[in-house]
Protein 1
Amino acid sequence: MSTNQPSERLIVIGGVAAGMSAAAKARRSNPGLAITVYEQSGYVSYGACGLPYAIKGEIARVEDVVVRTPEQFAKQGISALVRHEVLAITPDARAVTVRNLESGAVFEDHYDKLLLTTGGAASRIPIPGADMPGVFTLRTVEDGLAIKAWLDELRPARGVIIGGGYIGLELAEALAAHGVALTVVERLPQLQPSLDIEMASHVQAELERQGVDVRLEHGVEAISGDDRVREVTAGGVRFPAEIVIMAAGVRPSVGLASAAGIALGPTGAVAVDDHQRTNLPGIWSAGDVAEAHHLVTGRPAWVPLGTTANKQGKVAGTNIAGGDARFGGIVGTSVVKVFDLTAASSGLSEERARAEGFSVKTVSATAGSRAHYMPGGHPIHVKLVYEAGSGRMLGGQLVGREGVAQRVDVIAAALHAGWTVEQLGELDLAYAPPFSPVWDPILVAANLARQ
Amino acid sequence: MSTNQPSERLIVIGGVAAGMSAAAKARRSNPGLAITVYEQSGYVSYGACGLPYAIKGEIARVEDVVVRTPEQFAKQGISALVRHEVLAITPDARAVTVRNLESGAVFEDHYDKLLLTTGGAASRIPIPGADMPGVFTLRTVEDGLAIKAWLDELRPARGVIIGGGYIGLELAEALAAHGVALTVVERLPQLQPSLDIEMASHVQAELERQGVDVRLEHGVEAISGDDRVREVTAGGVRFPAEIVIMAAGVRPSVGLASAAGIALGPTGAVAVDDHQRTNLPGIWSAGDVAEAHHLVTGRPAWVPLGTTANKQGKVAGTNIAGGDARFGGIVGTSVVKVFDLTAASSGLSEERARAEGFSVKTVSATAGSRAHYMPGGHPIHVKLVYEAGSGRMLGGQLVGREGVAQRVDVIAAALHAGWTVEQLGELDLAYAPPFSPVWDPILVAANLARQ
């Protein structure tokens, strides 16, 4: 694709969920657009959320999480260049400086429109030994391949996962499937911070039931070894480990944006409007690097999830191609499978709602996943968070062995609608004995609420 | 409980879902109320929806579907009298005439407040042989016990189910588990009339995959046999059968109401306001005998389901006890398990929406129940029905092997909220690879819609 064509030129920095969904949407909407994607890693358009299952071995090959290859994008007229790192954006010249990581060559490219979808990066806690062989983070396909290879080749007997958020929890299941005896060390007094502590305790109990050693309020202090990792020290305790995963959070990759004068929002991620525009003309942003409007707080939030990245990418692609699309905002819905348990939440936890300044009430209930007389059912724990006085729903959490993953979507819908907990309790939800009690667990909880 | 006490007296006619939830709620709200329930069958407070699973053998004993016994209600101060048929209501005298079906004795009882929860009755098609031994309907625990006994004792090799609605479909699974070779005969050109015909075709395919002979447009003409049933004739074809289930629809049991001057609505069920009041002072009604306000059409509807019965019963009980509760209405959400398939719908089908006079558009999509790279996923077929021009959601249907039962609740929420299909497509739904693709099947369908 030659730059002396008269067509308008789009450069996309970062080719995972947001970047590639934007590129594909822009291509469909405006066949005349010249589109180049620069991606630092060796893969574009992959489902990073699938990597724990690839490591586990449930997915045959790690590369199976790739949705489309550069060759497939080329057939659509999208030039997706992997192993190309963008070093700088020069907005005044509408230029980017790029390094080909294979050849080392550095070159300039020019855009009419730029989409910044650099995503997020796993936090590496700055402690001794953090870069030792056998210490991994998980973001890219290469990370997944490296962890899988380490497991397959070294067959580690013991491992430590640093961080009890959803990536740490999913990797606990994945590593346990390889026979690794695991310790999860977490700095906070609970796992999975999107849940309130009493709901997170069910997740902890499931890990422990599966033989995982969970150490809360154990901040990691050092990693040590010889030619490879041998030990993690956390909370003053030494844990032997032949594999260590750092899953201690994610941060938005805003280095390029900041250097180019692209404004960040209050969360530290790139500020965007509902059309995914940044403060600079001709530059859009989307996905894990960007903020999103949170419909419960009415303020910008940074909740890096694949669903939002895909939606924002599609909106950005439409607008870049000359259309007019608007991103409706998020309520912060997520779900995680932890061995045989599922934990899900939408909106604000009680703790978070208080921190946001809401006057909070909560109601909790436990009800069956099936009619009481049906075999095979399991309890579902429900917690609803709502505003005192108005009764307006602020969030909800569910934990159970079945019927959790889509049930949380009803809470998400209530948050989108701005319903009160009473309105939530009036919903005409589906019922058949294999799938629910006649009073759905969400209705049971909602009907116990007192405004 | 003696009638010469000064306390206010509530009589409930019919002690299943609506009646007993009303009685229990009224008791909790007003401890002074004297409450008597007359129930024609031998059981109160049972989950009729569980009966197919009891017949199947998945539930150990048919009686396990009973939630609470008359003895348990007695401890709460509720007198629940089974095998008592109310023969007449005399509103002017605030009296009911009751027959004790055990002793044959007929007596009068007086009420201050009356709740009519007589439910529905299975339609018996008036054809020769409809009352022959081995021909069953299914509404009560006794019906379930009779079917189970027939299966266990006579071990029928062949059976016919008359009617392809949800009770017929659930009983197909139940009877097949007993080794009965089955034919389902249905008068209409499709099964499960809450679905549009192309969605119902997936249900038909599942039945056929399970070895069930499905005969559409085969109206039943005769049932014949000797001391017991031997054959069903439908659509001119003779089907041998040692067991026959009539599952050809349900009608509201309005005989008592009509005779007493209680007004029926346009659907033929008892007309009620949002407080479950009938046209007669001091008389409430709820459950399968009553109508409900349909939030999509804005008109009364008759959709007899256990969920609505429980909710309406609770509202009636609150109001009878002197409180002020309002039933918010229905959107007509239901789900049925058919062997390994689940079919669900909420709101209006395309056919029904057209019949209601809406200008209708639809969109259909098929998407995975899990991320594309996850093993064990199955396609989910989604159809959304919405209003041309406004884009307002009118209904939705889902069919698939997993992830259907709660997913339909998102459509139910959209109907409660009065959202457009575009608004439905903006929802922040939960995603993790074991539970959904990154674009939920509902979002895939909604985003294909063009207003």
Protein 2
Amino acid sequence: MEKIDEFFKQLTLGRKPINLYEPIYYTLSQGGKRLRPRLVMMATKLFDGNAETALYPAAAFEMLHNFTLIHDDIMDDAPIRRGQPTVYRKWNGNIAILSGDALATLALQTMLNTPARPEITLQLSKLIGQTSAEICEGQQLDLDFETRGDVTLDEYVTMIRYKTAVMLAGCLKAGAILSETSPENQEHIYQYGINLGLAFQLKDDLLDVYGDGTVFGKKIGGDIRENKKTYLYLRALQNADAESLSVLQHYFSSINFDEDEKYQAVRAIYDRLDVRSQTEKQIAEFVRSAMQELEAVHVQNDDKKQIFKDLLIELSQRNK
Amino acid sequence: MEKIDEFFKQLTLGRKPINLYEPIYYTLSQGGKRLRPRLVMMATKLFDGNAETALYPAAAFEMLHNFTLIHDDIMDDAPIRRGQPTVYRKWNGNIAILSGDALATLALQTMLNTPARPEITLQLSKLIGQTSAEICEGQQLDLDFETRGDVTLDEYVTMIRYKTAVMLAGCLKAGAILSETSPENQEHIYQYGINLGLAFQLKDDLLDVYGDGTVFGKKIGGDIRENKKTYLYLRALQNADAESLSVLQHYFSSINFDEDEKYQAVRAIYDRLDVRSQTEKQIAEFVRSAMQELEAVHVQNDDKKQIFKDLLIELSQRNK
């Protein structure tokens, strides 16, 4: 991933106007998991593509991801990201809007510069375009859910598919496209990515309630405090008897409760309604689907798939 | 332009999530001058390109333009655009950020779908990518200028080049690229567009002070009221004696003056410092440069250039 860092540095460091490119460099140089470039490189290796070429889509998707973070942080009024002030707070809203716009453009330009045959570069660019559109749709659904009382579990899964899973899937497909593997392989690795992403997000929802705060890296119960309609909450609503329902609705009607009291009360209801094991079961189903898609991928040497199985385990069983 | 309207309708009307696509349809269906699609079609006709194919870049640039308006209106806290409430005011800031992001993505996707050879579609997409990056830079310069007291005329021209002229030039170049005319022709029509855009913006600055409010369509003196550092203001600063300078600085230090008093006082200084004729002279220079670039374009029948000359006259001599 040092090459990615070098790439970002060259693209933004010292570039003018400073107030546009400094927030971009600030965001990109914070690191984070770099999960998206890692997925592009993994798929490129699986399908015997060119790792040098893959740097472009790898960087492009990481930039697209960071663009969404900059804009989401404005919309969520979020003060901290990766332990640092958000662009929105460190600079201001206008600079966060504009540097986000510029970063989205840089992501596109990077993809368009992928040194491959024009057909391939065009396919990759259409992929990042589609991904970007779906992420906007997912974010809008998320915003819509805030004020809706009738969100279903299916709608929730659709929302996280767009907001989270399509980008992970897109990264894998990018590696498959540039390696010029078959359309079937492209589709199977994409669907592996979708299921990986869904499992990943549900695990996130689970850790927010049942994680160990000292390991998780952020405070437990944040979703409950903020009345976030997570998979656990929607599952609880679905299972709830009249009494549990009334307690849940009481606590999710305001953010002005004692934080710990609210967390303990909601968690007690989740426990009673068996929400934890049902969420774990759903995660296991997504993991199983991902494994099936992975098996359907045709490559000469099936040992090369091991790293994809390891990643599934890593992300779905993580404690942080 | 009915085809463009039909295009926009199909792309956005009734699409979900409603809260994402309704503001986009709202913005695109307001019309406006449709100058950008017109430029794409003009260049396509000049270079004997395919008008059906040109609809894609024409629509893409108009969408990119409208995306910038949606985000600029948030940054400027603007209540009204084209006589209607801005997206930011009619919905809210979050929806304006997100529907702007989605519209920028739609613009890109439309360009990527241009039905041409992959090399050509890729060139067109790189062009809209570059245009988008430069517009972000121009907008950032504009924001930076608000708090700077030492902006030069050259810096101002650089800012409007990026913020306004590159998109007009990009539209013309798009028509040239898809018509597969020579690189020299592409460059000359691009530079024609740059000079057209610079003349267009300076005329806008001029009309804000010397226009006829009943014809101009918006209230005269808005730039003065908002302390906008226009070409006229910067030219006045350059020309000013100590007394004029002190009056100008006094009035540009706050927005809490009686609107009419401030306008009359500033205009009197502009008059005294000969700012109007100097601005007109600068516009005439840009028009002359544009004409030269147009002459350097090689086409079989020079009569086809007439419409470009007419447009220059139309935009640089307009009263609204």
Protein 3
Amino acid sequence: MKQKLNLVEGSIVAPQGFLASGVFCDIKRLGTGKGSQKGKKLDLALIVSEVPATVAGMFTTNQVCAAPVKVCVERVKKGRAQAVVVNSGNANACTGRQGMKDAREMTSILARQLHMPEEQVLVGSTGRIGVTMPMPNVKSGILHAVQILGNAPRQAEEAAEAIMTSDTKPKQIAVEFMLDGKKVRIGGICKGAGMIQPGMSATGARPAALPHGGLHATMLCFVTTDVAIDAKALQAALQEAVAHSFNRITVDGDMSTNDTVLVLANGLAANEKFRVQSSGFKVFQSALNHVCLELAKMIVRDGEGVHRVVTVRVNGAKTIQDADAAARAVANSALVKTSWHGGDPNWGRIIDAIGYSAATVVEEKVDIGYSAPNGEKILWSLKRGHPTKATFRELCLAASPKEFELHIKLNLGKACAVMYAADLTEHYVDFNKGDVTDPTTLGG
Amino acid sequence: MKQKLNLVEGSIVAPQGFLASGVFCDIKRLGTGKGSQKGKKLDLALIVSEVPATVAGMFTTNQVCAAPVKVCVERVKKGRAQAVVVNSGNANACTGRQGMKDAREMTSILARQLHMPEEQVLVGSTGRIGVTMPMPNVKSGILHAVQILGNAPRQAEEAAEAIMTSDTKPKQIAVEFMLDGKKVRIGGICKGAGMIQPGMSATGARPAALPHGGLHATMLCFVTTDVAIDAKALQAALQEAVAHSFNRITVDGDMSTNDTVLVLANGLAANEKFRVQSSGFKVFQSALNHVCLELAKMIVRDGEGVHRVVTVRVNGAKTIQDADAAARAVANSALVKTSWHGGDPNWGRIIDAIGYSAATVVEEKVDIGYSAPNGEKILWSLKRGHPTKATFRELCLAASPKEFELHIKLNLGKACAVMYAADLTEHYVDFNKGDVTDPTTLGG
């Protein structure tokens, strides 16, 4: 099962048969009178497979869900897609019937250009909430993006840039591995920096097993692969990968109306198709897990105002739900997050958050410790509810790196959970308080 | 039932037969080598009734719960108390057996001085977590406080100051009303500025009805009254008052290990004792509700770094649990709170938070509006999921006062809930990130 995984160049166009492009069509600043050419940040991306592909998706469980999400949920069910159009600058959320019409129109414009069925075109949006799409701009953007599709030397990077909102850098990866003697590749791009605590499911509906109220970015992720796989196996693999990556990150605890992960698998690697839980599946799963987790961590590291990234590991919980509740309580506590910003080990705030979480906790059994990202050499501040002999200086040192791990053992059972979390900084507050003299800084 | 309620001077010593004092005994800075006399902020308070009183209490439901809370839960059950000793600077939380010994010792020192049974002395603490109490200082503080009990001209105000931690001002109130032709008074003091989202119950155990995970300050509140009432009726009245006041506030969403509300009723007003739900009870309830709500709002207004106070009113929810979940999601959303700080009406973030809450929400039915604190003339930004014609300038104006109300109608049922909430500011982050060169700024 341990298959060699090589990092390769090329991002989403590393797998065979995929093309991409990114263009500027002035989606965000339209009509605000702020000088529309300013900056010219790319804002519309295309990802296209040369041949029809198998598709799987995961979508926000927010009950207030954007039009493009609704369109994708319906189309992904059919298991086939060939192209995706994505814009930044406008979330097309809370836009009513017009929003649904616009989302479908985006797919039909692209479908006509590429001579493919509209149902095999998907759509994603991120940006302001509650403003209808500037469709003339979007249309000219799609036409332009089709013209240059696959031609730009930086096609994948431009697509990755075009989906950014408050992100400071594009996020991308590609890996290669062998399956039945065939070379298979997976590529991915994603975006997201604020409104980040995704809780996604295959249909956008909340599975009963997901923690009550504990699901809370717009994050968008688009994965391409040339593996040959059927839709059911691809969906199973994606659910597993998202459960251990995007659904385990938080920047600010807010779940967006638009969170979406899509995978297109076009089969050009020509491996033998495999079934769920076969050895081939496990090899693919492991590679997909790696791609999703690396992309998810890039979102936390580039989160709005983030200075420190903390991996919260809860072990020894009675149930998985308990482990998840304790990890999320710590990862989203304003007081814990501000202490991380200060480089303050503050285990008092951590045990306080565990104590008010929905998890069963016994104070006298709790261990709390800190380690480097590799998880070795844990410095314990609390053992069985009692402060250890570690000095305040030692603890501060352990909580001072740009990335560290927080280890919480409840010592009540065997369940565990991890959250990839971030500190809360003045910069986050300043960035998100907006500027009421400039409405384009506001909204979703 | 509508009884005239007059505000009176005197705070907790306004009711007959109550004495108070506040002293400095250097609890916080002890042993830190920071120059212990610096500032001399009062840090130990006494509240004493001249005669034994009926008592009721509400306590944090945090599973990690401080020693003084454990002592009070046990003693309040017996329904009788005569004195309370309270310190700031140290929470006596996560201090194990020594903490329990110290909490009891505090009560026994005071009991010996006042010649009353130890079981009728209660204790409260707030401050750093995980540090044992500096008992020699505490003891000398109690002896000093007993000496000056009732003698200082500002006795109640000094008690209110002594319980402050990050509070910028003392919080106190007293009211007077008539019951069976007798003049009755209620006084109260409280403290709390950070780690504020209390969820208290009578025993510290979580009632099933309380929202899962939605319970999250140290806030302390001490109420005195000369009403004659039995313990059962007093506890019933306090639970009702806390449910609509302290359990409805949030500064940062973090529930403390120490949250406590205690009421001592010494009967010196000599009214006829009344039973739960009698007309006399209702008059008392109404006055107690007023005292608790005013004190609770003082906490939010003086919350750490708070610039704006927002009352979040959710109406038309399917169930009370839904109304509560929606109100808490909005009141604790980092993005909503930062937008309040900026004076940004940002209904997109608000509907996003409602949508990810545990409440049942239908986007096309949601109304969102803003009003002055009196709740009149609501300016709607969203009606049935659609933006209204209100202009961005008008909405900014409605969200610009230091205090305003946010109205959310789900239009799915008849249940409602309110949360008294605050913005999230750079000042909050800066204050709470601490200073790792000065351990006394850290901890709980």
Protein 4
Amino acid sequence: MTTIIPLSQIKQSLTSVNLIDAMEKGFIQFSLGNCVVPPVGELLFDEPKGDTHIKYGYIKKDNYYVIKIASGFYDNPQLGLASSQGLMLLFNQKTGVPEAILLDEGYLTDMRTAAAGALVAKYFAPRQIKGIGIIGTGIQAEQQLMQLHALYESQTADSKKPIKQAVWLWGRNCDNAEILAGKLSQYFDCNIAQSPAQVAANCNLIVTTTPSESALLQASDIQPGTHITAVGSDTEHKQELDSQILALADIVISDSIAQSKSRGEIYRAVCAKAIDARKPVELGTALTNASLQRQNDQQITIADLTGVAVQDIMIASAVYQHHLSNQQA
Amino acid sequence: MTTIIPLSQIKQSLTSVNLIDAMEKGFIQFSLGNCVVPPVGELLFDEPKGDTHIKYGYIKKDNYYVIKIASGFYDNPQLGLASSQGLMLLFNQKTGVPEAILLDEGYLTDMRTAAAGALVAKYFAPRQIKGIGIIGTGIQAEQQLMQLHALYESQTADSKKPIKQAVWLWGRNCDNAEILAGKLSQYFDCNIAQSPAQVAANCNLIVTTTPSESALLQASDIQPGTHITAVGSDTEHKQELDSQILALADIVISDSIAQSKSRGEIYRAVCAKAIDARKPVELGTALTNASLQRQNDQQITIADLTGVAVQDIMIASAVYQHHLSNQQA
């Protein structure tokens, strides 16, 4: 019988799952070529405007294959509904039997994206973080910070109570930045920046999370030793970083070299002839080779995350495995 | 909250749904160009062999969009599982909210395929059926006959007890033909044929339902006035009818002209240069134009059904609507 897992149970399972580790394993398998990930399916709607994406695939010799349906219907808030909707399906890879339906309403996509951000910070951010900068004030801004909090808390010795990390927030809408700062104040020492440049002046770990179609951070803003993770740009038109930042960077990481050929910051920088298409290194490759990671506290490093189906496979499998082991306990 | 409908409830709902009418409406919308049906998604598996197809789309201005996941894992019977697995998902077309999950295990695909066969018989079979021939003895053979039984029963005046229609069955495996004949004996006067040619000699309505890759029926077997519905061939390699039968036919119907360019009997006949690619007429077009339907009892007519996502949209919507109205009653 197919197991139906509602959002409340998904959230509970996630508290026991090490998502950053799961993403690391997934990206490594992806870069080793052990994943089957066909092109994304798409349905577009006009009245009202909406789009649905179907991402699917599997890791060879794994237990499951996964299909994710995720949609954005941008008039939904007028009806009191979230714009993002969707679910994930897990099927047995050996029989095709549908094993589980995760009614996640888009939550797992947010979480796997944020966990990839924390994974990148683990390997590419400088050792000493003087400030964490966040461009954008939406759900992804909040989740990126929560995953970074989980990462840095796990790295602090148990006996040592960690000092609250300084965070600088910038968003187009100042009220939203204040609201986010309020939510996060128990975990971070939050400051509201007046501009993206002020974020860059105070932070050496920056995450950009907006749907912007023009650069918010300029090359002249960036200090030596900064790491930037760009998660907002996932289409051919979206862009948060001046392409010269990628030219300046010592290391440019792509979560999927194949996807970077048609979308995201790397695509924009290659189009602008700011970087050579051979400069980016795939995340899963860099994770298994220390010489492809940050070498010192002066390097500028960039990670461009456009989102890969292997992340969906990993998070859905982890939630279901936890659900199963809880049932047996 | 998403409604989960298990197979037992799906089967119960179907008893109250006029599937042949639903298919007719769907094919007409499809041929009018009112359906959005992107290319089919596919996942292939090697150990063990299996394949999964993702069919999805919507009828414009309808209530839902539908995603169907259907797989075939051919070693499943060794594990006591059906080869076919799958489910259908209905989402609100205006908000993306997942409204219903139909855990149909492939059953709705069988039913919509059989209902399309009966729809074709309604418009293209001769008025007087001297015998119904079935090539193949699997689930689809049985369901095609049950849908034809429903069609002809609905056409018989209430006061008149219908005479059992003669049926001729042929399958590679004689035992399977005997088993099927036993199952259907309460509805039909069943005969086992020694060859496909014997089926053609005794029947003027024939349905072919096998996964054969070489012609089972030859042009010389076919009598004037025969209608043949071919449902088995849905890939570029499968073929049940000698291409000369399509050359001989007065009318050749395709459920989807677009799909007939790459699969099915029509594809094979065009490749063999037996017919011109412009000969086939699309089913939904023919349904709305009596001059494109059978004109007399001497014509030979062929319908090549490769299966179209609009059928999945129609059957899933009909089941869910019935489920909803039952909940409210």
